[in-house]
Structures
1.
Amino acid sequence: MNPEVLIAGAGPVGLSAALVLGSSGVRVHVYEAADILPNELRASTFHPPTLDMLAPYGVTAAMLAQGLICPHWQVRMHPSGDRAVFDLSVLAGETDHPYRLQCEQSKLAAILLDKVRALETVEVSFASRVIGAATTDDDASFTVEQNGARREVRGRYAIGADGARSAVREALGIGFEGDIYPETTILATTTFPFETRLEGISNVSYCWKAGGTFSLLRLPGLWRTSLYARDGKTLEETLTDDGIQDLMHDIVPLPGPFEVLERRPYRIHQRLAATYRQGRVFLAGDAAHLNSPSGGMGMNGGIHDAFNLAAKLVAALRKGDERGLDLYEAQRRPIAQDAIIAQAHQNRTRMQERDPERRKRLLADLQATSRDPAKLKAYMLRTSMIDGLRRAAAIQ
């Protein structure tokens, strides 16, 4: 197959772009460095507009069968249980999916891979690392390393959806300015049924506790927790069995240990690419923007990038209309900066607040918003990413 579009990365962003392009008859070749799709727990929250986008391809239905609907989410004081609850049903009429869906990113990637493999227009190569990228007036190219050998592949256009350490972005010399938050987040998963011990808990809950914070996100059969080291404790001490159990017992003081399935530390970046386009090569997803996971906007924003860009590439390739290609950056980069990164930063800053009186005021403000129908709907349109997409569409 002579590909028209090259894609680096077989994550949700790259495969979403491949699905849209391939379904429109565009020939696509996806290159993935890993031998197989990764299975570790990464993102898990899908917002209403993302579900709307994926639905026509049968992806949303498959995800609903494997995921858990989240009709509301909350910010909560622990252990008192005082909380502000945000009901997504107010979005009925604005979206076909007025809820969040909790489903592992790995499940989405597997669904997408099955969908694109069913298309004659898409080819996916694993164990094929993109190590270079270039562009001319007529085409785009990747340098691909496979089985110890390197070769150059060409297409009309190329997409770098190869993550935070994007080789495509680096090869093109595109800046990726920003910073790293000082705290380290520890992801720990457990089968413990928090829903039976924490009254009124939502499937997505952001919680303040004395001297710190944690979050609880429910998935089928397990809960994922985001934990932070106590003041004065090192990361190494916190990652021990005793350290993790200590933090888990802050949530529910069990007489015995929690069953912990997975633990993983990670640092949070806040970064934005200087440009999303160089010639015939484009960036999307984590290759273009990174943000705090608070609010679950990063992966969703990357999928929104993919759908926006793929539609414009279809128009360029099938209608000869390249005018929309510059519009991709104009529509997506400001939203990443002003809506995704800024909103995620605001969410993270709120939950990092330590002063008890300020926490009470923040919670009171959130409760007032949740009880006012007009304010609630405006807030949910923004935090569910619908408002950002509408603002982007208005940029012409």
Note: The chain is about 35% helix and 30% strand.
2.
Amino acid sequence: MPAKILVVDDEPDLKLLIQQKFRRQIRDGRYDFLFAHNGVEALAQLDANPNVDLVLSDINMPEMDGLTLLTKLPASPNQLKAVMVSAYGDLQNIRTAMNRGAFDFVTKPIDFEDLEVTIQKTVDELMKIRDGLKARSELLAIRRELEVARTIQQSILPRDFGPKGPTGGVSIAAEMQAANEVGGDFYDFFMIDGERLGVVVGDVAGKGVPAAIYMSLSRTLLRATAQLGLDAGECLRHANRTLCSEGDAGLFVTTVYVIVNTKTGAIDYSTGGHFPPYLARANGTVESLPLAGGMVLGIESEARYESGHATLESGDLMFLYSDGVTEAANAADEFYGDDRLGEALASVAGSDEKSAVGTLVKSVHDFAAGYSQSDDITLVAVRRR
């Protein structure tokens, strides 16, 4: 689109001069000129042509001078620019014009080479501003979409915390805090049958929308596979094979899957490149269960996964977590780490699951002391009642 320029001047010959001096730019579709003899006519032209880009106006004119016109120029979504024309040495009016928002000025008698440079410089500046406004608008649109995605992602995480199983033998609580608008961490829990509760924590390698989409796929697949009633290791093996068959997305997911018998407290667990569960016993001792499982999911279709076993006694807490917990950093570039996590777990032994999760999340945030969160933080606690 040509730059639309409104020339405001009471000199009768200026229109012909402009059309002659800029005939090549007009012919090539670079510039499109409109003309007015004073400020009143200029405002009428602007009303009829709201897409004017540049006003080139004399200062001294009848009916309405250029300085008054400057104060009446309409607010324009196109970021309308004004270039003023005045006699050489009329510095007071030129200064007033610049203070009233003029972008630049040229002096009389007009040097048309200088005028062409000034017009092109002004148009270039307009293009930069518009490109910036367009980029900002697109960024805001993306942020709005990411907020919607974040809301959707949070909404698919289960929130029906509390007692599980026919006798309420275990109870559960969880927290997931994404580092960005959308995250790659997830947790899930569901009843596999009348007695067994399945609990999953996963962490997709990557950030942003691709990780969030892969997270949703992984969560759905793990839940569907778990409903087959397989042991933990076999469930991960089947889920991994399906993820690998979906194609090379350049992503993978670490996960820990635990099956808890809500009546007996028996635990069957397996990990895919993830941390094994922690147990905080009711007597205050803390133990990390032995590593059992295999490699991350989504890389090698024939990978095998072992199962581990343990038992939750009355009052014991089991914790599943993502590396956003232990790798939370503070301003000194120190990590929260396994030792601090162990101490925090010992401090919540004997607590209910909801209080325990809240205490642990607070411990991580207190350590970070406002330092920017670089990874998603996910914690799940299961308590034998």
Note: The mean pLDDT is 89.
3.
Amino acid sequence: MQEDYKEYDKYAKAKKKVDEIKGFYIHLTVYLVVNAFLMIPILKYTNGNEINFWSFSTAIFWGIGLLFHAFSVFGKNVFFSKDWEERKIKELMDKDKKEYWE
């Protein structure tokens, strides 16, 4: 009975993490699509001298919010996590081993 509870708890935590990651990627996709549509008229119908900070303010401020969302989902090591470091070290060691023996 206790093992069933532990398995359910592990499943619930994993499901929550997957839902958080999925939510982030949906947020990222919406950000890219909406800002692409907002940028088209700005870039197509204005001269270079008419573009200012406010032309890109939605993308900038929403992007900051998206960055905080990424930190909340992936932690502070969004791009270079400990797992990534270990995989990269192993990859480089394997590559070095192959080159040495060839």
Note: The chain has a mean pLDDT of 82.
